[in-house]
Every structure is written in C-alpha cells, then in structure tokens.
Amino acid sequence: MTPITTQTLENALTAKLMVSFGKTAAEATDGEMMRASALVLRDMMALREVETRQKARQQHARQVHYLSLEFLMGRSLMKNAYNLGLLPQLREALEHLGFKAADIFEIEPDAALGNGGLGRLAACYLDSMTTLEIPATGYSICYELGIFKQKIVEGQQVELPDNWKDLGAAWLMPKPAETQEVRFGGTVREFWDNGHLHIVNEDATVVQAVPCDMEIAGYGTEHVNVLRLWDARSTQPVDMSLFSRGEYLKAAEDEAMAETIAKVLYPEDNHLEGKSLRLKQQYFFVSASLQAAIAKYKKTHDDITKLHEKVVFQMNDTHPTVAVAELMRILMDEEGLGWDEAWEVTTKTCAYTNHTIMAEALEKWPIDLFSKLLPRVYQIVE
What we know:
Blueprint: H1 6-21, H2 30-58, E1 63-67, H3 77-83, H4 87-96, H5 101-107, H6 117-131, E2 136-141, E3 149-153, E4 156-160, H7 165-168, E5 172-174, E6 180-184, E7 187-193, E8 196-202, E9 205-217, E10 224-234, H8 240-244, H9 248-251, H10 253-259, H11 272-300, H12 307-310, E11 311-316, H13 323-334, H14 339-349, E12 350-353, H15 367-373, H16 375-381
Parallel strand pairs: 1-2, 1-11, 2-10, 11-12
Antiparallel strand pairs: 3-4, 5-9, 6-9, 7-8, 9-10
Helix pairs in contact: 1-2, 1-4, 2-5, 11-13, 13-14, 13-16, 15-16
C-alpha cells in the first residue's frame, strides 16, 4: 500500500473541513478539526473493513460475535492514528494547519459506552482480535448519555449527563438499511400446520434496532473489525391528532419510551421501572445482534444446522445470557428446527465469560416481570 504522507493527510483534512463543515482550516474550531480528523481516519478504516469482509468471505472464516453490555473504548483519535501507522504524520499535518495536536487529541471525549473492568476487557478483546486478524464483530447499545459525568458539589456527588456524541459521533456510521425489529410483551399463540407447531407473538410492542458501526483498526495490519452499536427507535409515528390538539408529550409517548432503551448505561434498578428497563436493554441488543448475525450467515450458507461451524456468540458476563434462549427461539420459531436440533446448534454456538460468582453481581429477574416482557423467551427458559 502507498505510504500516506503528511501532505496527503493535510490535503484530506482541508477537503474534509470544507465538505463536511463548510470551513477552511483558518476558520475551523478545535472541535471541528477533531471531527474532521476522525472522519478522515474513519474513511480509511471503512475501505479496509470492506476488504477484510471480502477476505473473510473468500476464506469461509468462522466469525466471532462478541456480546457485551459495555465497551470502554476510551478516546479513538490517537489510538487509531497510531494503529494505522499515521500518528507522526497526523501530528505534523495538524501543526501545519495551525492547530496544536495535543489540544485536538485532548478535546475528544471518551466514548461513553462502558464503565469499568468489564467494558475495558471487551474493548481489549476487540482490539486484540483485530490485531490478530480474527474476523469479529462487537455488539452493544449506542448509549446517548453513557453512565454519567461526576461533579462534586459541597462534598456530594452530583450526576450530570455525559453528552459524548457531540464530538464522538464522528466515529459512528449509521446503517439504517440493516435495522432489526425487537418485540416486547404481547401474547403467545400456538397452532399446528402441516404437522409443524407454529408459535406467533401477537400484539407485541415492536422497537426498531438501528445499527451504528464503529470501525476498529488493528495494530500493524490492514485488518479492520467493527463494533456495532444499536440505537432504539419507535415503529409508531408521532400521533398527529394528539399533536394538533396540543398534547405534545402524549403524541410522542411511544417514541420516547422506545428511545429510553438507548439512553443510559446501567439505569438505577432499585425500582420496578428500572429493572424492566435493564431487562429491555439486555434483550434489545441481544435479539438485534443475533438476528443480524444469522441474516449475515444465511447470505452465504443454506444449512442453519451448521451455524456453529461459521458463527460463535461470546457472551461477556451475565447481561447478554438471554442470548441462549433467544437463539433457541429464532432456530425453532423462525428457522423451523425441533427442540433437540436447535439445542445442539445452540450449545455449540454460544460461549460464556464469567467475571464473578458473587450473587449480587449476577443478573436476576422476577418471574412475573420476565414472563410478561418476554413471554416466548420465558416459555423456552422454563
């Protein structure tokens, strides 16, 4: 590959500022330059990701799908420039354009997608798999506000929203064409047809999972993997009759309830609404991720009973473990497998990382909440 020079980067940054922000380097703010830098690197990684995907398809490689409720990615600009072998050139290009490189790197917010060790481990695995050229996709939620920003006022912690997307969204590539639908509640109806038992979930609340992809560059390699983050959207349009009557909040109620799923990492769960939201978050990203991975598998493979030969779902701690029952649901209800066949595929496809055996750290749900919110999944668990 032709080496990228400081001048090449300088030209790319100048062009990106004009095309995306309508400004010259002399007019741009530090924030705009940070976003332009991210977009230039993102373009390079996107091209490499397409090549990585084609290579994996040609080699019929097994795909790792890493499910984690959090990924503590940190700041991406300096890391990606370093991994791409472009850090010295980027520093020089920024200085030539009249910016202090250290200030541009410093202004980038941490991607508010994780909290502690669990999320950092997930990020390290994703970085490592990319550097080792293992085809992998990470899956989580595209949290709008992350956990929170901490401020100490008169000796007390005050929690403030962390609006990381103002600058951080430059790394995200929305993929609305690959939206999945996730169902909550409703009732389960069973009927027989042609000797097969069919299960239908009726009157469920449908939430759209819209993917935003973040490219992950490996060190010293052309290989690029993806962290897929799911954003939540309502399928119900704003009720215009209510809106016309001035009932604005009620008109947008469905929309607001759906979008709450992707609002905050670890909502407080010392009340029923918080418990319900956390279970919704977990099922939402797991169901969307499994549907996307199986759809990808089916593009090039006909036999769903051989899913385990090309796909592995790695569950990071207990948050995504509903994946076991959800995979059973998809294989039986949508792919038409019997229980024993589906169970054999599931046991060979799902793997699990345990972080602690402390009871208070493991996810637990009241049966009435779980069975009401996920009626078909509860039948399978039972």
